[in-house]
């Protein structure tokens, strides 16, 4: 049996040649559209019924998209990566569409970027580089990380990897999570689990490493920023909508937030019309923190494993 598969994840599309032999072995007929970040709901609605399965990026697999797909031949939706906030999981379940993701795969990669962003905020290395290229010998007095307090929101595999790196830098660690944080990690890094308001009030640097859920949408809003110290840094390697960008702009204007490093945004890709691009104290990324060659090749295979497993289940081959 040959299955027709849509792939919409940009990192996988960029490394698709490495998967060709596997596609052939698994009898997958693969379609690879041109994508910058993700397909829109309308774009998905136009094509989704043609496919047995999808390896998805951050595309909006809404109930509408899934219903159209299920009326066609869609059986399986395999998420490339961790976050499933763009998928209506309840609708998929009700429609009998198998879903999966690839958890615990990017801890080191995303943590490396979180540390890199924090170092840039502390030492402004990017500004020095830019100035020297323009003929200026810029001397910026930075900030030492040792003994600063880092508050990590979301202490799963990524948050834990961030904690280990920050501990090596001599930082004191606070963590917030809706679940009990691994006691072994707390012992290893001296991280202290606290309530959210305590983290806001005590942290010099706040790092977002949590999943996006309905409960934490705009978690960092006007009220949250007002609880923070003057001069706090924000690093977001999670999901854009966890931060209310209008509230962040107000906090930057007031000086409550001294700087921010944002790998993700409320709407992606952002345009030059986004007010945040005008703030030189904001470092911007392209939702790219998990994108290393090693990680991509590894997760490509896991996503294919999940896809093929569920296609066989849906067709009754595993029964």
UniProtKB/TrEMBL annotation:
Gene Ontology CC entries for this record: cytosol
Protein name in the entry: D-isomer specific 2-hydroxyacid dehydrogenase NAD-binding
Domain of life, source organism: Bacteria
Family the UniProt entry places it in: Belongs to the D-isomer specific 2-hydroxyacid dehydrogenase family.
High-level lineage: Bacteria, Bacillati, Cyanobacteriota, Cyanophyceae, Oscillatoriophycideae
Pfam families in the record: 2-Hacid_dh, 2-Hacid_dh_C
Residues of the D-isomer specific 2-hydroxyacid dehydrogenase NAD-binding domain: 116-288
PROSITE patterns assigned: D_2_HYDROXYACID_DH_1, D_2_HYDROXYACID_DH_3
Keywords: NAD, Oxidoreductase
Molecular functions per Gene Ontology: glyoxylate reductase (NADPH) activity; hydroxypyruvate reductase [NAD(P)H] activity; NAD binding
Organism: Rippkaea orientalis (strain PCC 8801 / RF-1) (Cyanothece sp. (strain PCC 8801))
Positions of the D-isomer specific 2-hydroxyacid dehydrogenase catalytic domain: 17-313
């Amino acid at each position: 049996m040959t299955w027709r598969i849509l792939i919409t994840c940009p990192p996988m599309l960029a490394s698709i040649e490495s998967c060709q032999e596997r596609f052939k072995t698994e009898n997958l007929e693969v379609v690879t559209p041109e994508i910058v970040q993700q397909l829109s709901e309308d774009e998905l609605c136009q094509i989704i019924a043609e496919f047995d399965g999808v390896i998805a990026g951050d595309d909006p697999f809404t109930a509408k998209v899934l219903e159209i797909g299920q009326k066609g031949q869609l059986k399986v939706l395999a998420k490339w990566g961790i976050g499933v906030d763009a998928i209506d999981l309840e609708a998929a379940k009700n429609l009998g569409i198998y879903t999966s993701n690839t958890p615990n795969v990017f801890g080191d990669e995303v943590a490396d970027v979180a540390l890199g962003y924090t170092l840039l905020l502390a030492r402004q290395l990017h500004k020095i580089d830019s100035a020297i290229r323009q003929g200026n010998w810029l001397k910026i007095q930075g900030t030492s990380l040792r003994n600063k307090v880092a508050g990590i929101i979301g202490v799963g595999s990524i948050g834990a990897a961030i904690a280990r790196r920050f501990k090596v830098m001599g930082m004191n660690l606070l963590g917030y999570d809706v679940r009990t944080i691994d006691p072994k990690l707390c012992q290893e890094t001296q991280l202290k689990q606290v309530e959210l308001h305590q983290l806001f009030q005590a942290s010099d640097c706040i790092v977002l490493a949590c999943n996006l859920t309905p409960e934490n949408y705009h978690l960092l809003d006007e009220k949250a920023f007002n609880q923070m110290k003057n001069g706090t840094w924000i690093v977001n390697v999670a999901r854009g909508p966890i931060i209310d960008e209008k509230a962040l702009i107000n906090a930057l204007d007031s000086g409550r937030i001294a700087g921010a490093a944002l790998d993700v945004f409320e709407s992606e890709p952002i345009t030059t019309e986004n007010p945040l691009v005008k703030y030189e104290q904001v470092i911007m990324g392209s939702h790219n923190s998990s994108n290393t060659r090693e990680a991509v090749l590894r997760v490509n295979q896991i996503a294919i494993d999940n896809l093929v497993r569920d296609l066989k289940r849906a067709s009754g081959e595993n029964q």
